[in-house]
Structures are given as structure tokens and as C-alpha cells.
């Protein structure tokens, strides 16, 4: 397949200028940092992937919305103004699902102009109704501001918060500190420890762990680029390995947060506060290279600085493998998938259609060639449905890894009852959808029209 194709000012946009003035029914949950290979697979039949974010709003840092997505691209509003703290503000909310079954957020408690020596905590049993827990005063000597707390859960189950702190002698120079929870209730914390090697003037540090290596993504407040560092211990010393525009994300970027995708890749979200968009970018080689950043549909310009929690939940779509099926458009119910001269189109098929037309609208559903938890489709000649130059077509399996990925799709829930959607395995966020009665693989734009055009109902086979 060929290559992929104004917000309010950041709280830190005016830092240099201000410096001259006087004185952030579940089967399996994924926590930041604890991102194992078990989560890098499509959900099983009857289950669904669910990503949850709790961002503060570009227009209001006194409350947060809750959004959810099954693909980490198309986020839909679950509840607006879901949590408003009893006092102060809520910015930079980071979310996890803890071992007690509750969802917890930690957040910045004051707006960027004000002294802010506390970070806030709240929890929810259902992601919709939240209860304030407490504000915690970060015990850093001469503290001026404590910003952007980020959860980290290590492979031993220990829970930490990474928080960016500045002191009164230089209130706009931030350093990352680690606070480790000393009880399971997340109400007591160790003394703050700096993350050695990352250094001062770095903010919004987000950490994940793969194997025995800790990977840190801090924002350099001088250059406004997100950097990359690694260490063999959580507290360091870290070695900064990539600086400048190393990933192609550009500058004036902040709030990096990573999550694992169903196809095994890693997705980073970040706030493009300089241009008003919220971006994502993917890596498949342990953070060495990244796809071109793309704006998240629907929430860019609204959502600010968030992290994501990934879960596998019950109640997802079902589609039996090793069976023959036809696929009816959810919004054009007389039209069906049909192979025409190796291309997949959406013509009208009915009882009066010819035998050949009915056979061309019949497909065998099999386990995904690239991932057995995904899906692949064969026509009556034994050729596989795959995308090529964004067009859906049928070709013989050439045995390559590229073909297997092009021919594998992840099952997602459709818009109509009984309908499903098919997300490209190797182009997350791209779906089989019809346009001018042709089937293509296109990136979701977050609209209801796109969701309807990409929804299909599996029915008894015509042929």
C-alpha cells in the first residue's frame, strides 16, 4: 500500500515573557508503563478494545470530558463535564485503572499563571461518575509549581506518578520527579526523587517500559520538541538519545502519552498547542521511526493534554471464522460486497441476480493472515481481499509479510444492530468503507457518515 497521506495559547507559550514579571465489565486493563505483548492483539470474538481519555478542554480548564474509542483514533464523547473538582482547576489529567477496579485520575490543580504546589486525585467506578479524593502537596523544597502528573505502573505492579516541578528561584524551569505510592489506596507517597539524566527544563515526561528498558518522552522547554531517553532503572540515569525534530513531529508540541495498539505498534498522542491540533503518530520499531503525525478527528481543538487507558471489554462484535458469508451495506441495504474484475464493489444483489453474481458476492471468512485474532476474506477463486493503493481488491497470496498485513482486518462494532466494521491491520484508523459504490480503505474522519459507510452486516451467503 502507498504511504499515508486556533487553539488558546499553551500554559507555557508565554513562559519566557512571564519570567521577567514579578512573582496533567472489564477483562483486562492496561496501565501506563505496564504494556505487555498480551495487549498487542486484536480482541477475541465477543470482546472489544476500549481506549478512554479524560482531557480538560481548550475552552475550560475547570472540568474534563470523558471520551472512548475502540481504535485509538475515533474518540466519541461518553460524558461532558464528567468531573469538576470542588476547588481550583483540572488540567493535564492522567488516567489508569487500578487493581481495586477503580479508575483514577491525577491532575494539575491550578491554571498556568498561578503558583501550584498540589496535584489532585479523583476516582470512578464507571468512568462517568467521579469522586474527588484529595489534593496532595508535593514535598519539594521551595516548590513553585507542580504540573502534569503522569501515572506509571511498573512490571512489579508498583504505582508511581511522574510530576514536573519548578522552584521559587526559577519558577519556569521544570524538572521531572518520581513519587511512588506506598499503599494500595494510592493515598501515601514516597519522597520525591528526580529522574537523573533528563535534567532541568524538561516537562510532561511520560514513561513506558519494554522488557527491562524504561523509555522516557519529555518535552524540552527550550526547543519545544519532544525528546526521547532510555534507562535501565525507573529513576535513571537516563540517556537522552533523540533531540530536535528527530521523529518528524515538529516543535511546539507537549503532553506526550503512549499506548499500545492492537497490531503491536505504539501510538503517541501529543498536544500541538502551537497550531491548535491534537496529534497521533505510530511506531513499529521500538520508537526508532514514526509515521507522519495526523490530527485526531473530532477532538482536535477541543481536548487538551491527556493520557489513555486501554482495556479489553466484553460485549464486542462476533463473526464466525471458516464460514461463508455475504456482507450487506448497513446504510444501503440492497447493496452487497461483490468481486468485480478483482475489485471489491457494492452493487445491488437480489434473488433475481445471476448465479455468477451471487457467487461473486460470497466470501469465506478465515483467521487473519497476519494475526489469527483478526480476519481475512477469500473469494470463490481462493484469492484474498487486501488493500492496494487504498483500493480493496482480491489477489493471490504471495506469502509475504506485506501481503498478510494488507489482507488482515480487525473487527470493530458497526453503527447498526448486527453490523461490524473492518479496520486495516497495518493502517490503524483506516477502514473498509464504500464511496461511489466502491470499497476503499480510508482514514476515519470521525463523522457519523463515515461510520455508516464503513458498517456492514454479515448475512447468509448468496452463493
From TrEMBL:
Domain of life of the organism encoding this protein: Bacteria
Transmembrane segment boundaries: none
Record bears the keyword Membrane: no
Signal peptide: 1-25
SUPFAM superfamilies on file: AbfB domain, Arabinanase/levansucrase/invertase
Keywords: Glycosidase, Hydrolase, Signal
Every Alpha-L-arabinofuranosidase B arabinose-binding domain range: 326-457
CDD domains in the cross-refs: beta-trefoil_ABD_ABFB, GH43_Bt3655-like
Presence of keyword Signal: yes
Family: Belongs to the glycosyl hydrolase 43 family.
This protein's name: Alpha-L-arabinofuranosidase B arabinose-binding domain-containing protein
Annotated organism of origin: Streptomyces africanus
